[in-house]
Amino acid sequence: MAGLSNALQELRAERTKAQSQVEKLDQAISMIESLNGRTSHKATRPVRVISAASRRKMAKAQKERWARARNGTQPAKETKTVASAPAKRVMSSAARKKIAAFQRARWAKLKGGKKAA
Fold this sequence. Notes:
Layout: H1 2-36, H2 52-70, H3 93-110
């Protein structure tokens, strides 16, 4: 029994030594994080849960703010759709042909003039 109590005392001594080392490491980590501008994970606030309806209201309000910023101080028109895509630009066929011819000439130049445009 004396051997078991000695082993138990040694284990407890090792545990307290390990705990003190862990505490020193935690202090060093928190010091480095504070120098870096970050706080410890323990000090962070819990995540705020926001309902889907509230998120929609916040998104709508933000869109209105951006619309006012783009158009001066005019209030944004109320829209029924959540997200509307901007209108697509249409290119004339003549413009497409000019761009295609330019690209063909460019590629021909890059490939060593094998094809002439």
